[in-house]
Write a structure and sequence with these properties.
Elements lengths: L2 E12 L3 E4 H6 L11 H8 L7 E5 L2 E15 L2 E15 L4 E2 L6 E2 L17 E16 L3 E19 L9 E20 L5 E17 L2 E3 L18 E3 L1 E19 L4 E20 L6 E23 L2 E12 L2 E2 L29 E2 L2 E14 L4 E20 L12 E21 L4 E17 L17 E13 L2 E12 L23 E12 L2 E8 L7 E4 L7 E4 L4 E8 L2
Parallel strand pairs: 2-7
Antiparallel strand pairs: 1-4, 2-3, 4-5, 5-8, 6-29, 8-9, 9-10, 10-11, 10-12, 11-14, 12-13, 14-15, 15-16, 16-17, 17-20, 18-19, 20-21, 21-22, 22-23, 23-24, 24-25, 25-26, 26-27, 27-30, 28-29
Length: 579
């Protein structure tokens, strides 16, 4: 009775719901991308008609994996938990839609089989990940000491049709990436008698990430103007390599004091020190660049919390906290010197007041929150409510040079800490047990998120709405539990609504020529019903019953007005057996 083991293996196959109509676009000389590039015109320029094929079921994905967990408890004071997780994912294509086509359509070239170096790989994504976690928890009596060590390894592959960059001329980019992440945390949590309690800890992380993404021309090289200057028969245009590292060490502590039996004051502090670097290399047709950037920073964040709990069913609290996101290196070729974006060598991007730097610092938030957690009507009604305000400073934004120049001579840009924003609103979550069998839950949120300050040459303005920030979201659920033939059964319905939002500040979305295109502004209805037949469980479900085709995200991306839609109505049956 000192060792327990759990093991799980699984395979999930999920169908796609996007249709590739590249063949149709070629047959009709239809628009290949948002800019209006015509498919037949592109083939006439560089060949490659066989790349334009219709294909259904784009976005189907298979997840195969497993996990094993072991708990060892040699004596009461010590427990050691080991967990290993592995998963392989394979996706056919990428399930986006193009806004200038039908609701669930895209026009993507089948580029992989044309390049011997790609070994017949098709347009799609692969991802293999393993996570190992070791946790030791020791009860000292007066405190608990915890150690958590985690290792993550990830290998990814993707093949992307990048033809939209060239107006439909066939160009393919394979991506190969790898990531290694190690984290270690030590935490001491007191269990003292009296009014004081504390937490003390140290956190360390070490991240390494690399990516290689060469480019290949897949049409008739004798017709192409994008020839390899060394070997005109070589379809490879050039290489791109990218490496990124992050190392961070942090110390944190928290002290709480019971002012009375109901009133508790808590204060916390976290000191961090990190170093982050990026290295970018391109060759041949992509240009010869070798850029290295690094940023180092130390800082301290604080928090304070005052909570009042008059009884077991009521908690009221007020909290203030600071947070941050690590800065980054800026990968840019030299912008200094004559006939560039720093003609006078003063270190300022011409036409702006922004220094030319190879990094930007962390951005930070200051968070204010008032909330309550209430149990009413003999705990049949649960209410959680909070109002908040977040002040966001030093936001990294792209600052474009030369906008204030007449005539404009600088067309470069840098990323700098160039903006401020505010997000405020409220959230509510309720559950009400009307009677023994009927339960209703409701949740909602209102968010007002906008820019409050920006540098002059940033393409946003004060008052612009923040990206991907719907103002209103609502969810409503109703469940009825009952007996059917003596067996436990249920029926449930869930409805969720999200108001509109945009992918970029200033309410812009879609792509050039399309104007602002919003995501959101849709509702989704799911229903299900099930019954437990001893060891069998049977459930019938319908997701997106009304078959809403709302956009969940619109990507501001040159070339094809790329977006993602809700999965269409899906009806299914779940059957499980417990033994």
């Amino acid at each position: 009775d000192v060792l327990a083991i759990r093991a799980v293996a699984y395979r999930h196959d999920t169908s796609g719901y996007i249709k590739n109509i590249a063949g149709t676009q070629l047959a009709t000389n239809g628009s290949y991308n948002t800019f209006g590039g015509r498919a037949a015109d592109a083939v006439a320029s560089v060949g490659g008609a066989e790349l334009y094929q219709n294909e259904d079921d784009i976005g189907n994905v298979t997840h195969t994996g497993g996990r094993i967990a072991a708990l060892w408890k040699p004596f009461d004071e010590l427990s050691v938990t080991f967990q290993y997780i592995t998963q392989d994912a394979e996706q056919d294509g990428q399930p986006f839609v193009q806004l200038n086509l039908g609701s669930y359509q895209q026009s993507v070239l089948q580029v992989g089989n044309r390049i011997p170096a790609l070994d017949g790989k098709e347009h799609g994504v692969k991802d293999d990940i393993t996570i190992t976690n070791l946790v030791a928890d020791y009860n000292l009596g007066w405190a608990t000491l915890l150690s958590s060590s985690a290792w993550m390894e990830e290998e990814g592959e993707a093949l992307d049709d990048s033809s939209y960059f060239l107006g439909g001329l066939p160009l393919v980019q394979p991506f190969a990436s790898s990531a290694d992440i190690f984290t270690q945390e030590l935490r001491l949590v007191s269990k003292l008698e009296g009014d004081f309690q504390y937490i003390a800890g140290v956190y360390y992380e070490d991240q390494e990430y690399s990516q290689a993404s060469p480019g290949y021309m897949t049409g008739d090289l004798t017709l192409s103007w994008l020839l390899n200057p060394v070997d005109p028969t070589n379809p490879k245009l050039g290489d791109q390599f990218f490496d990124r590292t992050l190392e961070q060490l942090a110390f944190y502590g928290e002290l709480s004091y019971d002012i009375t039996e109901q009133l508790t004051l808590t204060g916390g502090v976290r000191h961090f020190d990190y170093e982050r670097s990026q290295h970018f290399v391109t060759t041949e047709g992509f240009g010869d660049l070798d850029i290295l950037g690094k940023v180092e920073e130390t800082g301290t964040n604080f928090k304070a919390n005052l909570s009042y709990q008059p009884n077991e069913d009521t908690l009221v609290y007020a909290q203030w906290a600071q947070g941050f996101r690590v800065g980054n290196a800026v990968l840019l070729p030299s912008l200094s010197g004559a006939n560039s974006c720093d003609a006078n060598n003063d270190g300022i991007l011409d036409g702006t007041n922004t220094p030319i730097k190879d990094s930007f610092d962390s951005d930070s938030t200051e968070n204010f929150e008032l909330g309550a957690k209430l149990g009413l009507l003999d705990n049949r009604l649960q209410i959680n409510v909070a109002v908040y305000r977040i002040n966001w400073t030093d936001i990294p934004l792209v600052v474009s040079g030369g906008l204030d120049q007449t005539p404009r001579t600088c067309f470069g840009s840098v990323t700098a800490n160039a903006g401020e924003a505010r997000s405020q609103g409220f959230e509510i979550e309720t559950t009400y047990q009307l009677n023994q069998g009927l339960r209703i839950n409701f949740g909602g949120a209102y968010t007002n998120a906008e820019m409050t300050a920006v540098l002059p040459t940033v393409p946003f303005s004060k008052g612009d709405r923040l990206p991907s920030s719907p103002e209103v979201s609502v969810n409503l659920g109703l469940e009825y539990d009952f007996k059917l033939g003596g067996y436990a059964s249920y029926m449930r319905g869930d409805y969720a609504y999200v108001s509109d939002f945009f992918a970029a500040a200033g309410e812009t979305g879609g792509d050039i020529g399309l104007g602002p295109v919003a995501a959101g502004d849709y509702g989704q209805l799911n229903i299900s019903a099930g019954i437990d037949l001893d060891k069998f469980n049977i459930e019938l479900f319908a997701h997106n019953l009304a078959n809403s085709d709302g956009l969940t995200h619109v990507q501001v991306f040159a070339g094809r007005g790329q977006a993602y839609r809700l999965r269409p109505r899906t009806i299914g049956l779940n059957v499980s057996y417990q033994f």
